[in-house]
Amino acid sequence: MSVQLLNADWLENPELQQLLNLLGQNGEEARINGGAVRNSLLGEPVADIDLSTTMLPEQVIEKLESENIKVVPTGIDHGTVTAVSGGKGYEITTLRADIETDGRHAVVRFGRDWLEDARRRDFTINALYADGAGRVYDPLQAKNDIESRIVRFIGNAEDRVKEDHLRILRFFRFFAWYGSGAPDREGLKACVRTRQSLDNLSVERIWNELRKLLAAPDPARALLWMRQSGVLNVVLPESEKWGVDALPRLIQAEKELDWGIDPLRRLMAIIPPQRKVVDALGERLKLSNTNRERLIVWADSPLPNIDMNKKDLAKLLYRSSRDGIVDVMQLELARLRESGAHNNDDLISASKLNELLDFANQWKKPKFPVKGRDLVDAGVKPGKQLGQILTTLENRWIDSDFSLAKKTLMDS
To answer: Structure pTM?
Structure first.
């Protein structure tokens, strides 16, 4: 690819240029690899900047530390270290070839051949390099795939998947982020034939890929292809009888109502809101406690009646979970907005629910002014009766629209 990176402001970063210079001395070479080059060519934002070099990992560490640059051996067995410069991490990997794979791990051989390094990567659009001046090196002629936004495995698709089973999910994740039209036919066939190999992967790796896929601007097409290929049922069986049809309308609502992208909310759209299901899902995928709790609260939260007034909604929010109810309301609003295009009643309901949702988003939970210690100081003995009195007072306070003062409650 005879191309120069244009409008790549990140190339002007002095720390990056220093690293390229240090790693390219005395006959060695260093280039930016993969995602930063790909995204710049596609006109997509660039986040992480990774480098490839002909220097061995130990030489990289010695060279950079001699210049007082912090180096962390994040994956040194596979030739990867991370340089920390200017408060930013740069992953640096020695050119290599995979000489032995088992579907999860690889034994590597370090080398100096850029073509060999490119061939061991997953997709053609990731086998790109650029020097410090922005000149692009395209050993595998990925130009057409970049221009057509095709996510294509390098070489034989099934061989690439057998080297690392996670590449099945990466195929759909990269398609969600960068693909256009239908997925590459050979890649899709390889994923279908090898989909059960996903059972051999750790659930942490699987959830990490699913989360990244769900964070794409519009993952609906990718998830539809995952469902049709049977891959989705392997990694997310909870969606099998629920489907992914609700996702497009949620994505449209996110864009039009400025909700922002939320991978967990998108997950909610494709699984049933049942406590038993989300409990099992959280356990199976080993989700974080925060994510598990959010799914549980969502599954347990009621949908407010659209004719509910805001005072009653405030009481419901206080007695339940505001965040859980907001998640429930957003998913229902997305449904009503879609059906409202053909049903006037649903259009009216969507308008009412949107007002309630605005109120819920702005609502702040008031603090009950009476504590157990207040009752003890007033002569109530600790025990069951104290709890009953406290509950009675709190209910009275809630029924007053949270308006009764502490003195009034204590005197009642």
So the answer is: 0.91
